[in-house]
Specification:
The chain has 505 residues and is an alpha/beta fold. Helix content is 56%, strand content 10%. It contains 20 helices and eleven strands. Strands 8-7-9-10-11 form a five-stranded parallel sheet, with helices on both faces. It has a two-stranded antiparallel sheet with strand order 1-2.
């Protein structure tokens, strides 16, 4: 019996270790390669491409002085400077006769990259152009050029032309011309997630080493460094020497700057602290631009902050700005009467679009079937709270449930769902798992069962469901495996909402 106990303990330990390392592997893959909406990459490409074009345009003002064979930095001198190391710059092999044609070609490529035309090619060329210009004139190579090169590099690795580009417009036009259905949902890509993560981690490394290197100098320990910058007339655009009358202020700014830079790498990953951390960074960089005149560096750094943003929020903002969202068609009609803030309508019969892809919402093929209309629980129309991460999923779910008589409130995160439950009278909750962290889904479902006491339906992919089953995460909650049609999801939710003796309208 002792040997059986030892064997059971060994098996339990081995099983626990396997689960632990399997969880680490899943977290690693989710962090780097979980498909993401590429809209923020498109927005960063727009801003970075504009900044690249502006940078090249400024070189045009005195191109021969900087890039000429016998200019301020002679070509032979630069070649000797770099002869002991390998680097790329096409300016090291060009004669003066090709200077202006090549420069205008680079301006054209930068404009194409900004507009998102042939982005897969122009993004790579934009990166090569950026490093070629900066390596040719090392004396004029500053932080702006380095950050610009970093962003161009990561943009050429990811699908930066998938959204907010001429390429995307041409893709939709081609599908219409071929008689294909337009893509109504966003194609999430693993490469988009990877590029965004690389930008995030690179920014963390930049700030950490910037703060750490400041600690090597005694002026940052004493707090004098900030005053030396403020009192330097070479950088002043606004006279800040009045701070000499309040000497504690520049010292405080210096110490806060170091603390913020060193701990940025930790604090920015906390969702609650992230807005505050980025807001402080925005203030710092805009202050550098406004008071020290370094607007290009300040702007390019803040452009990279978009990598820490929520793509769903930005997609919704951009759609509203473009006038693509017509909220009136999703709202209930004025034909009904209002009771407890919930609209009552007569049951109707409508045709629903039933999709069968992995995410349940962005199917390649759809069929129509007749389904019943409004669901009644007592005298009122059922009010359902829906949690979904992706904007396209939220929009499709809301439109579908509204069309079948449900009063829906749709949110993007578990935190928003709990706030919704506190504010509204909700009859049931649908948690659409794809795109959400599995542990967050389990915690939300458990809390809703304990506190709110409302029926909960959780939809999970087969991979998520396998992990949840092994780790025993989803308890006391009805779940549904994906792929499944919207019709099947609705029927499963109705079974939980309809009490005994109730009926469909």
């Amino acid at each position: 019996m002792k040997s059986d106990a030892v064997a059971a303990t060994r098996q339990s330990v081995v099983s626990g270790l396997r689960g632990f390392f399997r969880g680490l592997s899943d977290d690693w893959n989710r962090f780097w390669f979980e498909p993401a909406d590429p809209i923020l990459l498109g927005l960063i490409r727009l801003l970075t491409g504009w900044m690249l074009f502006y940078n090249l345009l400024t070189w045009t003002l005195d191109l021969e002085a900087f890039f000429g064979k016998d200019g301020l930095q002679p070509l032979e001198t630069i070649r000797r400077l770099h002869e002991s190391k390998w680097l790329f710059s096409f300016w090291l092999w060009l004669d003066d006769q090709w200077m202006w044609p090549v420069h205008f070609t680079c301006l054209t490529i930068a404009a194409l990259f900004f507009l998102g035309i042939a982005t897969r090619v122009t993004s790579i060329l934009a990166f090569l152009i950026t490093i070629s210009y900066s390596q040719r004139v090392p004396v004029a190579n500053f932080g702006f050029d380095q950050i610009l090169g970093m962003l161009c590099f990561y943009l050429c690795l990811g699908p930066s032309g998938a959204c907010m580009s001429v390429d995307a417009v041409l893709r939709r036009w081609w599908r219409r011309r071929k008689g294909l259905s337009e893509e109504v949902t966003v194609r999430r890509m693993a490469s988009a997630r990877m590029s965004m993560r690389l930008i995030q981690l690179h920014m963390c490394a930049i700030y950490f080493w910037a703060g750490f290197s400041k600690l090597k100098g005694p002026s940052w320990w004493t707090g004098e460094a900030m005053w030396r910058v403020i009192a330097n007339y070479e950088y002043q655009t606004v006279d800040l020497t009045w701070m000499a009358n309040v000497p504690w202020l520049p010292y405080l700014i210096a110490h806060l700057t170091i603390v913020w830079e060193v701990f940025f790498i930790v604090l920015v990953w906390n969702r609650r602290l992230r807005p505050l951390v980025l807001f402080v960074g925005l203030g710092m960089h805009f202050g550098i631009g406004a008071f020290l005149g370094m607007w290009t560096f300040g702007l390019i750094m803040t452009f990279a902050y978009l990598a820490f943003s929520d793509p769903d929020v930005w997609r919704n903002r951009i759609h509203r700005l473009a006038g693509r969202i017509n909220r009136s068609k999703h709202e209930p009609s004025d034909n009904g009467t209002v009771s407890r803030g919930i609209v009552l309508r007569e049951p109707v019969t409508e045709s629903a679009s039933v999709c069968h892809d992995d995410a349940c919402l962005s199917a390649a093929e759809c069929t129509s079937e007749k389904v019943s209309g409004a669901l009644y629980t007592g005298k009122t129309l059922a009010r359902v709270g829906i949690v979904a991460c992706e904007h396209a999923d939220r929009s499709s779910l809301r439109k579908y449930f509204w069309a079948h008589g449900f009063d829906c409130q749709v949110v993007a995160s578990p935190e928003d769902c709990l706030g919704l439950i506190a504010r509204k009278q909700i009859d049931g909750v649908l948690i659409h798992g794809p795109g959400l962290v599995l542990t967050d889904v389990a915690d939300l479902a458990s809390e809703l069962a304990d506190v709110a006491g409302v029926p909960v339906l959780v939809t999970l992919t087969s991979r998520q469901l396998d992990i949840a089953t092994r780790l025993d995460l989803i308890q006391r909650t009805r779940w549904m495996a994906l792929p499944a049609s919207l019709h099947e999801i609705r029927l499963q939710l109705e079974r939980q909402l309809i009490p005994e003796g109730s009926h469909h309208g």
